[in-house]
Structures are given as C-alpha cells and as structure tokens.
Amino acid sequence: MPKDNDANTKEFMAQEIWNEFITDVLEIIRKKRELEQEKAEKELETENKIKKLLLRFIEVSDSFENVFKNIDPVIGEADSRTQSWVSNFSTIYNMLQRALKECGVVPAETLTGSKASPYWHNVIETVSQSGFEDETIVEEIKKGYLFEGKLIRMADVKAVRNL
Amino acid sequence: MGKIIGIDLGTTNSVLATVGVKGCRVIQNKEAEQMTRSIVGIYKNDYLVGTPALNRWSLAPKDTINSIKRLMGRGVSDPEVEKVKSSYRYEIMEPSDGTRDSVCVKLGGKEFSPVDISAMILKKLKTDAQAALGEEVTHAVITVPAYFSDKQVAATRDAGRKAGLRVMKIIDEPSAAAIAYNLDSGEKDAKVVLVYDLGGGTFDISVLMMTAGTHAILNKEGDMWLGGDDFDKLIVDYLTDYIETEYRIDPKSDDRFMVTLKQEAKKAKEMLSAARAAQILIPGLLHDSSGNMLDIDLEITREYFEKKASPLVKRTVDLAKLAVQNAHLNLEDIDCVLMAGNATCIPLVQHAMEKLFGSEKILRSIHPKYCVAMGAAIVAASAPQIECPECGWKNDLTAEKCEKCNYMFDLDVRPTKTCPHCSHENDIDAKTCSACGEMIPLPPEPTAPFAYGIQTAGDVFNVFIQKNDKYPTPEEERKFQEFKTIYQNQRSVSIPVYGGNNSEKASANKKQGEASAMLPPNLPEGAVVRIKLWLDADGAFDISAQLENGTDLQPRILRGGKDQKAEEKIREIGSKIAYKGDGIPPKKKVILENKYRKVIDLYNRGDMEDAYAFATELDSEIDKPVLPENGSLLKEARGTSNFAKYIVSEYGWLIGTDAYQLNALIAELDGAIVKTTPGSETAAKDQELIKEKKEELNRALNDVIDDNNLLNVFLSMHAEISSRIMPLNPVEGNSLTEELERIEIEFKNKDSAATAKLNAFSQKLNNKLKEIKREPENRKCTECGAVNSPNATRCASCGANLDVLKSASIQNILSNSFKGDIK
Questions:
Q1: pLDDT(B428) > 80
Q2: Is the ipTM of this complex over 0.90?
Q3: What is the pLDDT of residue B815?
Q4: What is the mean pLDDT of residues A104-117?
Q5: Of the candidates B58, B59, B284, which has its C-beta nearest A69's C-beta?
Q6: What CATH number has the domain spanning A105-163?
Q7: pLDDT over 70 (residue B184)
Q8: Contacts of residue A70 in chain B, CB cutoff 8 Å?
Q9: Cis peptide before B472 (omega within 30 of 0)
Q10: Does domain B3-177+374-395 have CATH number 3.30.420.40?
Q11: C-beta atoms of B22 and A34 within 8 A
Q12: Phi and psi torsions of A40, nearest 5°
C-alpha cells in the first residue's frame, strides 16, 4: 500500500514540524520571562542602592537638625561671628534638604498630638504624661522621609505611655 | 496550585526565598526589607509582625513577642522557658485551659501558643511573598534548627499549616545551607561538611555527612544564647564606657541616645568587616554635666574590636572542635565549612575558621544571611512533593493525605474549639476559655460534615451516610446497598466515594477517595454486588463489598495516585494476557502468568510502587515479539531433557518401564551436552550429536505421551489451566491446578473414584474454557456513550471509569435524586 505509506510519512513530517514549532515557542516564552525577571531584579537592586544612599544623606540632615535643636535656645546669647557660622551651617542644611527634595525625598509630616502609627512612627522613647492618651506623640525625634511618595524611613518619635 | 517558597524561620529574623527562571532569589517584604524581624505585636486589635511590631516595642513591651522560636514545643518547666522569661517582658505561662506540657504567651490580654505566634509570622511572610511575586503562595519548605525535637518540628509544621501554607517539608537549617551550596549534588564520594551558623541570637554548629545526594547529621552543638547581637553589644559597651570615663555622664539613662548608639554600633560592626577602622558619629544628642552639647566622634579599629570579640569567637571555636570530636572525627576529616548567619561576615570569625580548618575549605559564595532560606527554596523547587511527617513518603502537592500511610495532612494541626461566649479559639481539650474564663460546653458527638456516597454509572450519587449522621457509624446502621455489574465478565469494580450535599450528581460533590475490588471471572452482566459504606471513629470512610452469595470481595481503598495507577495497570495487563490468548507461545505464557501472579501478590501486600513498576515491565514484555532463539540448540536440548525429567519424576508411576528408556536417553543427551566445547574443532561434531540425541529423546517422549492417554489428558489440562485461566484469574488457576494434582494422586493410589472425579473435572474445565473463548465485547461508556476496546479501563473519549457499577433499580436512582435518603 504505497499510498498509505506516503500519507503516513507526510503525517509524521507534519508532526515533527509542529513539535519543533512548539519547542521554539516555549523557548521564546521562557526567554521572555527570564528577561522580565532579570529586568525586575536589576530595577529592585538599583532602587535599593539609591535608597541606601539617600538614607545616608538623610542621616547627615538628622545630625544638622540635632545640632540646631540644641543651639536654637542659646543662639541669641552668642556673638555675631558664631551667629554667622550657625547661619552658614543653616544654609548648608537647606542646600542638603533642597538636593534631597530634587531627588524626590521629602519629609513625612508627623503631627505632635496625634497617635503613633506602627507603620509610620518608631517609638523610641516614652513619657508618662497625665492628660494625654497613651500613644500620643509628644515629640518628633527624627523626621520620617518619603521617596517618590513611598516611605523610606519612619519617624522616630517620643510618645505617651502612662503606667 | 500557587507559588512555592522557602522560609528560614529564624529566632531573630526570618528570610523568604524562591526559585525563579533565573535561579534562587530572596524576596523582599512589604517594608522593602530582605529580612523580616520575627517579632509580633498588637495594634488596634490587629496583629503586627516585623518592623511595625518592633516600632511599638517601647510603647507596649508586654505586648511585643520576640524570640518565640525559643518556646516552640516546650513545656512550662523547661529551663529554656525560664531563660526567655527572664530576658523578655512579655508574659509566659501555662495555658489556663488546662493543656499540659506546653506554654502560652499573653498578647492583647489573650493567650496564644508559640504555634499561633509563629503562624502569624509565617502568614505575614506568605502575604508579603504573594505581593512581591504577584501570585498566590500555597506551598512552602520551612527550616528548623538541627537540634529541634520531633515535637518542635511538629509545632513548626502546625504553624505553617495555620498560616495557610501546605508545608511540603521541614528541613534542618544546616542541611538547607548545604543544599544552597549544591553539596547534595549526588557525588558518590562522601563529604563531611561543617555548618557554622552564627545568627542574630543563636549559634548552631552541625557536622553533616553528604553522599550520593543524601545527608546525615553526625553531630550538632551550639549555644542558644550567643549571636550577632552579642558582638554589637561589645561596641555599645565600648562607647558607653568611653563616654562615662571621658565626660562623667551615664549615657545609658538617655533612651534616645542609646537607640541611635545601637544603630551606629551595628553599622560600625558591618563596616569593620570590610575596613580596618569604623567611625561612630553621633552629633548633638548628648550633653555633659554642664549642659554643653557633646559630639560623639569616635573611631573603633578592627584590632580593638577583634580583641574584645575574641572570647566570643573562642567560644564558637571550642564548640566547633567539640562538634567534630563528638562526631568521632578529626579536624582534618572536615571537607568543607559553610558559613551561615549574618554574624559570620565578621573577619575574626572567618579567620578563626580558616585557622581551624584551612582557608580552602571555607565556602562563602552565597551571602550567609540568605543561604538557609535559599536552600529551603531549592528543596521546594527541586522536589515539589509533600513529605509525610509520619512515614516520610513523598506525596503529590495536591494530596490531602499520605498515599502510603493515610496520614491526613489537613488534620495535622491540633484542632481548636471556639468559645461560645467570646469567640476565642481554644485548644480542643480546653475546659475553660483562656480569654474570658467561661466554661466551654462539651462538644457534641462528631457528625458527618456532608453526605457520603458512591458514584455509579450515569454519575448517580448513591448516599450511604447523610449529613449530620453521627460517627463512628453504629454497627446496626451499616446497611448493604445492592448494585449491578455493567458488563458480562466484568473483572474488577471501581467504587468512587464522594462527599457533599448535591444529591443529584456525584461529581458535583468532592471526591473523598476510591475503592477497588477484583471480581471473579465469568459473572453475567447485572450480577449483584452488595456494598456497605460507613465512617469510622476518625470520620474516615471505610467500605466492604460482597457478591450476592456472600463472597467477600475485600475491596481495597486506594489512597492516592500511586494505588490508582497500580490498580489500573494490573487490570490492563490482566485483560491483555487474557485477550491475546493463543497468540502468545505457551512457554512465554507460563512465564508471563508467573510474573502476573507476582504483581498481584505485590498489590495485595500494598507495595503499590513495586507492583506498578513490575506491571509496567510485564506490560512491555507482553507486547514484545517472540524472537527466534539464535544458537538455541543447547537451550532446546536442555529444555527437552528437563521436560523428560519432569515426566519421569512426576508421572513415573504412570508410564512404567518407559521411564527406564527415557532415563537412558536423558543420560545420553546430558552426556552430549556436557561434552560439547564451544569454539573447538570438534564443536560442529558435538552439535550434531546433541541434535541427534535431542531428537531421539523427543521422539521417545512423544511416543510415551501418545501411548498413554491419561498422561496426555493430564498434560493437556495443565497446559490449558496455565496458559488460559491463570492470566485471567490466578486464584482460580491455582485452585484448578491443585484440584487436578489431587486427582492425579488419587489415580496413583488407584482410588476407585478417581475416574469419575477426572470426568467431572474435565467438564468443569471445559465449561471454564468455553466461557473464556467467548469473544470479548467492546465497552460502551455510560457517561458519553463512546465505544471502547474490550480491555479498556477508562473511556478514551471522556476519561470516565468504565468499571463502575450501576444502580440496582430505578427506585434507587429516584430515591437518591429526590430524597437523598435510601437507608
């Protein structure tokens, strides 16, 4: 039956071609997924590096703020030269804040008198204060920051804890 | 099925990992951290896990649970529990509901077991993984320390289950680390691996033997209270001492400063891993006794840090030596050392290990912080199976119970009961509620959660157990229902058991399992099969089946895919051997039949895997064409000689003096066989002689058989039984052979009734053979109507099981469809 054999051979070849095609399609899909994952991982890695760098600059900004917080009450008593230095440092701090803002980093506002949220505030100090409910923020110790709308550092706060 | 993850459930931190197309990677949590703090807190009736819980620690130290791993699977009198009690401020107590040999912690005024708290951590990890992967996470491999007892491992498994994860396997941390380093790649040479795991709060050292893809823990040592935090403390102490001496103030009383100092100390420790010195800068937070602002600007050198840290490192080195010694090994026997845990990045630690074992043996290509989680992820991805905690059997990921030992995976969590007063979940044995203290009423007798029944042809749901029926089903309520076979000579019956409340269609309910029974041959179509189904004390179904005449069919409940596969294969080859019939040469038929009997034996013994493997092998053997034997003269000669010896020994009493002639010819043939020397000059001559002697013996044998009618009858009967009945029904084949042998003995003993018995037997055998001779009928599917080949067990068109039963009467169907009650 030569005709049958011929038909079988053709069917076999068609099946072979189909199998190859399917293998190629699957390989393309696999490669595509691989590239997508690679891209996502690289983006995440870059984002993490940027965040780390920004957090370092935020720490410098924290230190400026700590110093100013201590100087502010006594600055009026200082001589004009010291006042000028402090003013210069204040300008440098403002430059740093501006640079951070330009990079998409802005302070997250903490309202004293509001309740501390575990998702926004890290309570590092507590105080017993009558007339205030527990968990009320009485002081912002370190500012929290947002990077492109997302929280990259929580604010360190002092909150009420009445024993 | 969703994604699979690996979880390093740590005492201080937990890490998540998964294997993607580009290999293994760590998954960040919702807070964009690669490690999640293993801390649980409470906020506005919501449970917090990780950094948010840590943020509230100072506000609610009694409601912040950390290091829960230390309490897993421990009783209240355990010394470790005492240590935890003295180290943390949350409340640890014996459960007030009377549960013994366990502890609970108080969170938000309610009691929680360590399993509950761990489950909260795992749930957060699962949720965060889902968010990061964009897919549901359903399965996980979780790591535990090598020293964890069975009870602690079981508790961890429960926690995973409570978190909504199907725990595929619990793996010990050192093994996971070794797997991450690909040390289980199957090399035949055994390797001794030392895993040095210095985590945040614990230190574990394990000695593993790895060979051919498997591993064994030779020894483990450790210090549950030594970790990276102790190294941070060294820097903190150094700075506070410096401040006290230099400025005469106590910085420890300033919480704000201490928080910053701890953060800076951690940073400095990490920096010292790469640099010779680290600077600690804390400006404007402290004031001296005169109120002047102090800037802390201090450099700490690696040399100083190492001097301070050396006692801690020495402790770990001593434990490493002890671990090797207690494994009955020498330090030189260690082939490689794996470093796990973040604190192993400290150069002093690495140098100590290099000094002890040699630098070439220290492996450090994977970050020690993540290698345990990565190992777990690799295990999960490479063997996607659920390992039975009872017998170790590896089951399909979808299995609800172990295919081998029937262990219920879904029930491996201790059940709870809800307090009717405050809805708090209490231990199943609790008499009073741990939250509100009210008495919990005794639970009612257990009842069936839904109706149980079997599926018969047409997807009919034949209910045996109604919803809310009490179990165990009382003996008097276990009633038989009658069903009928679908085909003539139906050889097996499948009994699919369904559970649910849809009384119209069996398949609309959830399949609970399947039973199978072998039927005797030649049953007519519509033969009655009586089935009884009931629930046992554990709420699991059991089944019995019998024929109308009371023959117990001993149905076997198939526990998962492997049983099913084996059972179907056996049915398939049984049909094949029977239907191929005379097409198989007699010799081959006897061999196949013997092998088939072995398969049945394995199946009956419950060795499903072996039965399936053997049946598959047999299947291909049935289809293998019989090739002519090349150079088979010797084989043929030996065969003739053996057959003649069999006739002489078994039927010598029947052939009389012919036995002497046969024996002489056998001796001549055997002599010729022994004499032959293959490849020699005389080989051709030898072969001629063998051929001659073989033919001579053959002729004599034929004469003896032809001259002896009785012998002829016996041999023919044996041939028919072994070639045609045995493959279809080995039990019946055996019984016929035994009956014939008894008749032969009666003839030998010249029993007067022997002839009559042989005639009766002959009639019986002929009837059996006539029934077998009938052409097999094609099988029509009761579901879709498709016509299938006679030996098909499943419909080729719709996949339905072709060996189900049919309901005995239309009333049966009606009662099920409309009333759902046929008891």
A1: no
A2: no
A3: 37
A4: 91
A5: B284
A6: 2.30.22.10
A7: no
A8: 284, 287, 293
A9: yes
A10: yes
A11: yes
A12: -60, -40
CA distance B693 to B691: 6
Q: Do B3-177+374-395 and B186-225+319-364 share a fold?
A: yes
CATH classification number, B228-310, choose in 3.90.640.10, 1.25.40.10, 3.40.50.980, 3.40.720.10: 3.90.640.10
Residue window 15-44, chain A: list those with CB within 8 Å of chain B: 30, 33-34, 37-38, 41, 44
- Every domain of chain A and the residues it spans: 1-103, 105-163
Chain A to chain B, count of Cβ pairs less than 8 Å apart?
68
Residues 121-150 of A with CB under 8 A from B: 121-126, 134-135, 141
Contact A37 B22 (CB under 8 A): yes
Closest CB to A118: pick one of B48, B259, B293. Answer: B48
State the residue for tokens 């923020």: A137
Nearest residue on chain B to A56, alpha-carbon basis: B267
A122:B55 CB<8 A: yes
Average pLDDT (B311-327) is 93
Closest-CA residue to A154 (of A116, A104, A101, A99): A116
Task: Give the per-residue pLDDT at A77.
Answer: 87
Chain A residues with CB-CB distance to B56 below 8 A: 116, 118, 123
Average pLDDT over chain B, rounded to an integer = 80
Contact B22 A119 (CB under 8 A): no
Tokens of B580: 């191929």
Residue A29 amino acid letter: I
Longest Cα separation, chain A: 115
Instruction: Give, in degrees to the nearest 5, the angle at Cα B520 between B517 and B523.
Output: 110
**What type of residue sits at position A97?**
Q
Q: Which residue of B has its CA nearest to A118?
A: B52
| Domain ranges (residues) in chain B | 3-177+374-395, 186-225+319-364, 228-310, 451-559+802-819, 567-623, 633-773
B249/B693 Cα distance (integer angstroms): 116
CATH code linked to domain B186-225+319-364: 3.30.420.40
Residues A159, B59: C-beta atoms closer than 8 Å: yes
pLDDT of residue A66: 86
pLDDT digits (tens, 9 = 90+) for A38-64: 888 888 889 989 999 999 999 999 999
